[in-house]
């Protein structure tokens, strides 16, 4: 199995790929289980999560979906400790296939030929990215990651994300959140890009600790843990709103593409993943990402992926 610039994938990279694939399967299924729970909760309470309801917290099926998602996220968390983000993140495309197919059969959210083609394009683009992905760089201390995180370029990225998220949450969300799928998914994706950088830092710290080099004594480890918790809670809240308001088959791929694009950008800035790679490999990764984006656009323009009418969203 080849890696970037003709290198063989390392053992750590292979572990990261396997964990990422398992993660995508669990996460893709969790979308469907959680949405079934959201529908049941909406029927019971009469208030949907998309308009501020939180009755889903009392719905057992929603918690089954949440546990399924947590299992997937744990696998994903560990994957980032073994492989670079530009290798792990694109494999999330599998979750699109899982959620779209399950939504077709379980939620009666129709997936036609163009939708299938869009999913295939997402997978094909992800495969190209994986083939040309860089090898994981050896890190010996969480302080190395901290020094990467306080680079001016990455600090500028973090500041930009925070400003955009605040504008989306306090201005655009109240006005257009119920009619434009990009609002909620953009908030999830922007916060997700920061959470992945912190997850990778935290995962690497724990990996080094288990290997005998204690990283828990450093305050940087606990700071990254706090960032992960903050970002994940924000993602959960707005992902629930997106799932309750819009069709699963469109939320999943749009969220995936935005999240993947922003995560790769953040990783390239912070970890300098493309440093040392040939222009050919970098170009191939970008082309793979364009194919993924094109597949998502194809899904988006399919008529079956319109916003769910409120009467339908309240049916089980």
UniProtKB/TrEMBL annotation:
Top-level division of the source organism's lineage: Eukaryota
Transmembrane portions of the chain: 16-33, 54-71, 77-107, 114-133, 145-169, 181-202, 222-239, 246-270, 282-302
Location relative to the cell: Cell membrane; Early endosome; Membrane
Assembly mode: Homodimer.
Described function: Acts as a Mg(2+) transporter. Can also transport other divalent cations such as Fe(2+), Sr(2+), Ba(2+), Mn(2+) and Co(2+) but to a much less extent than Mg(2+).
InterPro entries from the UniProt entry: Mg_trans_NIPA
Family membership noted in the UniProt record: Belongs to the NIPA (TC 2.A.7) family.
UniProt key word Transferase: no
Membrane topology: Multi-pass membrane protein
UniProt keyword list: Cell membrane, Endosome, Ion transport, Magnesium, Membrane, Transmembrane, Transmembrane helix, Transport
Entry keyword annotation includes tRNA-binding: no
Stored Pfam families: Mg_trans_NIPA (PF05653)
Any GO MF annotation of the entry: magnesium ion transmembrane transporter activity
A cellular component term, taken from the record's GO annotations: plasma membrane
The protein's name: Probable magnesium transporter
């Amino acid at each position: 199995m080849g890696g970037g610039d003709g290198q063989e994938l390392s053992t750590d990279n292979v572990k990261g790929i396997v964990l990422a694939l398992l993660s995508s399967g669990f996460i893709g299924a969790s979308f469907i289980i959680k949405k079934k729970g959201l529908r049941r909760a909406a029927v019971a309470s009469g208030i949907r999560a998309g308009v501020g309801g939180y009755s889903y917290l009392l719905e057992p099926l929603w918690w089954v979906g949440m546990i399924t998602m947590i299992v997937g996220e744990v696998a994903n968390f560990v994957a980032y400790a073994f492989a670079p983000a530009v290798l792990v993140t694109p494999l999330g495309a599998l979750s699109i296939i899982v959620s779209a197919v399950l939504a077709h059969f379980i939620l009666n959210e129709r997936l036609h030929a163009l939708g299938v083609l869009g999913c295939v394009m997402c997978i094909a683009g992800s495969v190209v990215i994986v083939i040309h992905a860089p090898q994981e760089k050896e890190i010996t201390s969480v302080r190395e990651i901290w020094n990467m995180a306080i680079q001016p370029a990455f600090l500028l990225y973090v500041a930009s994300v925070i400003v955009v998220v605040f504008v989306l949450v306090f201005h655009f969300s109240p006005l257009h959140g119920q009619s434009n799928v990009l609002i909620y998914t953009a908030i999830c994706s922007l916060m997700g890009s920061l959470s992945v950088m912190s997850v990778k830092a935290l995962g690497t710290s724990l990996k080094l600790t288990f290997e005998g080099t204690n990283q828990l004594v450093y305050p940087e480890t606990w700071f990254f843990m706090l960032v992960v918790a903050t970002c994940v809670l924000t993602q959960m809240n707005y992902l629930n709103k997106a799932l309750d308001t819009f069709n699963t088959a469109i939320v999943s791929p749009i969220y995936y593409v935005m999240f993947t694009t922003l995560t790769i950008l953040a990783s390239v800035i912070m970890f300098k993943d493309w440093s040392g790679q040939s222009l050919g490999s970098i170009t191939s990764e970008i082309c793979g990402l364009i194919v993924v984006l094109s597949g998502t656009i194809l899904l988006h323009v399919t008529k079956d992926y319109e916003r769910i009418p409120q009467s339908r969203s309240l049916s089980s």
